[in-house]
Amino acid sequence: MSRARPIRLALLGCGVVGTAVARLLDEQSAELAARVGAPLELAGIAVRRPNRHPGIDPALLTTDAGALVARDDIDIVVEVIGGIEPARTLLLSALGSGKSVISANKALLAEDGATLHAAASAHGVDLYYEAAVAGAIPLLRPLRESLAGDRITRVIGIVNGTTNFILSRMAASGAGFSEALAEATALGYAEADPSADVDGFDAAAKAAILAGLAFHTRITAADVHREGISEVSAADVASAAAMDCTVKLLAICERGGTGAGESVAVRVHPAMIPTSHPLAGVGDAFNAVYVEAEAAGSLMFYGRGAGGEPTASAVLGDLVAVARNRLSGSRGAGESAYADLAVQPIGEVRTRYHVALDVADRPGVLASVAGAFADNGVSIQTVRQEGRGDAATLVLVTHVAPDAALAATVHRLAAYDFIRRVRSVMRVEGLPPD
Amino acid sequence: MSRARPIRLALLGCGVVGTAVARLLDEQSAELAARVGAPLELAGIAVRRPNRHPGIDPALLTTDAGALVARDDIDIVVEVIGGIEPARTLLLSALGSGKSVISANKALLAEDGATLHAAASAHGVDLYYEAAVAGAIPLLRPLRESLAGDRITRVIGIVNGTTNFILSRMAASGAGFSEALAEATALGYAEADPSADVDGFDAAAKAAILAGLAFHTRITAADVHREGISEVSAADVASAAAMDCTVKLLAICERGGTGAGESVAVRVHPAMIPTSHPLAGVGDAFNAVYVEAEAAGSLMFYGRGAGGEPTASAVLGDLVAVARNRLSGSRGAGESAYADLAVQPIGEVRTRYHVALDVADRPGVLASVAGAFADNGVSIQTVRQEGRGDAATLVLVTHVAPDAALAATVHRLAAYDFIRRVRSVMRVEGLPPD
Q1: Containing domain of residue A362, as a range?
Q2: Residue B73: which residues within 8 A CB-CB, separation 6 or more?
Q3: What is the ipTM of this complex?
Q4: Same domain, yes or no: B152 and B294
């Protein structure tokens, strides 16, 4: 066993994840020391209410996070508070005083990762955040290291467990969104205020981080086109099943344009994917990320995206790497934003669409509908009529078309008197190229 | 763009993988330079027949691999020759003269990784080999870095594309082994001499490497219990399907024993797994590795396990990391063998078994069969009879039992006169714990 001086850690936050980190640091201390080459020593934990942590040595607890971060004897700060402030101020203070930082804070990384990276670079320290995306799944390190010699073309992820649970329940039971959400809440998969999950904010932050790493470009959450799942109906789910598809909330990061006009499109929205796609089988609260790269081909990473222990596993993996770097006086790979691609507006993003229209069942309707698509340059791949008379529905699937063209088509369709209702418009992803 | 001095590379071998590496180095040179912080320059390629490489600058080619490796101007040696010699001698020479090494050579790493690691450590250089296991799938880096703070309990992999293709074909078409092998050969998925794949040698080498990384213990190919797929019959595949299972060639690395008696068991053999298991859906020539860790839970990594481009992607990922280390004067994580666990003999390995017996259809047979299992301490979970009279078959699935107990049971059964044939004995994996 090494006799190197201990690497001293400050932990900011001691909720579900922080408690698991503290416990694993204790339980695995001998193995961690062997892997790092020096003991890891938890020197302090910043919490709001010290009396709420009965399993933790009270001498470690402090309510003064700023003072903890400023201590001279701390090597590495682990932040599991979440949210923008005070996390940002604390981490900039830590980096500014030469401490390396490990963060699980997707919101902060997606809003202002560039500032944190710049501070880490200026002070020659590490900023790692594997736990910020897809919990325990080793994803950021493979993207930024293993695939560093390849050219990633697309990343499609199921990165929010709450919404995946809700959509999986809807598919399994035929339930509507509200009913499935209530079940998710009752089982603890959804927060009392589920907006961050169901409206796609959480997935959008993760998409921004993934896109930045995959395409070597600074992407913030504001660059991500975002649609949640609250409008997904039991009818959409049934319609997907009829096409041998399933509905998933996807975070999609892809290259658009070519050459000097190359750009990055980042979007989060529900979409239909074929049941034969590897992502279709990712059920319940699991996460998975599907990566397409020019040389590597298709890859998928699957596992638990949330929870105290899985997230703590990711934090500890970063901790071993960062502690080893401290010992050897080196630094891991920093921000890579050299490509600096433009963000493609959602209107230019090209994909397929599933459109269901409740229509009057009379001659000429299909011709008029087809005309509306054609006038906007949207080519139809399949069309079928379901029901007759007052219950007639036209279900169309388009070839690949720009989002703006589809939006214009739907706008036109909605104005026709023989269309009683535009029942659903949903993107279709994961099919082979047109 | 950085003005750092170029990092100079020697490439040993220029077959399918080497050609793809050379091409990607050329095509991606600007991006690679941006990611590394210095240009990567291919300084020489050792080949056997220089006239066989029309797409390569002839000035780079040499038949004298030893002289290339000894050149003072080389920083990194990339070895894609395969086999034990001359690869080992060349790589030890490279490491001994301060060059970092990237290898795709699973056979060499599995036979003598310890010697190579020791040489790398003694000379303060890197030895990376992501491409040696599961081609393009980022696997070794996640195991040795992302999960470094966790405790891996089991690794189950489909790590040989040829056998997975054959077994997938058998399941899809009902074909026998020979017929499916012939199809794999015709399609280029199997070599003219398929023994390395179908007899499990290739998978065993990869299992040794995975087990070593997962359990921080030196494991060689000789430590791996190995059974191939040539005995897998169409009846086995049908029997698996009847149990809602599918047959896969699995590489399984797991912890055995507890406390001071803790050990590692590593085995490669065909096994039935439930169709609901994430590995069951891995078809054709794809690879996937399922990892269970105490904190992270279940993870899966999926992608292409072979082929020039996917393997080259893994080599280039290592190349970026190793080149960055050279520039910064640092080293990546070296061998980690501190746990030094014993290898558990196959006889002590505990799992479930599927046993099919062609029996005489007469009273008392089941009682005798059940007695043979009971006498050896093997508990039966389910038993069913298929067919009647001369076509009667008993199909049993056991609870978890040691391999030696099952072997003794089968030995006893084979001696009974009312058992016409022990039709198949196959392990069942991936079920929930007993």
Answers
A1: 347-428
A2: B8, B43
A3: 0.90
A4: yes
